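anyone seen this seq b4? input:
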Amino acid sequence: MLVPSLFSFAISVFAALLSVNTNEEIVQVSAKGVAAISLVVSLVLAPWLMLLILSVPVVGAKLVKSAG
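predicted toks r here
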């Protein structure tokens, strides 16, 4: 499951970079859509340990924000 997850993540990174570096509006919108879909697929295919590592900073930031 790690290889498909990394492949999907690489596609989303490439699409995000393409949307930032191009001047065409249609290409930007398409690339952002592909990046969003690939990122969701990457998170679905990710191993549980990777999801835990990604979720700890988000939850920690929310706890710090609500405490302050």
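Residues 1-67 form one domain. The chain is about 90% helix and 0% strand. kinda curious what u guys think
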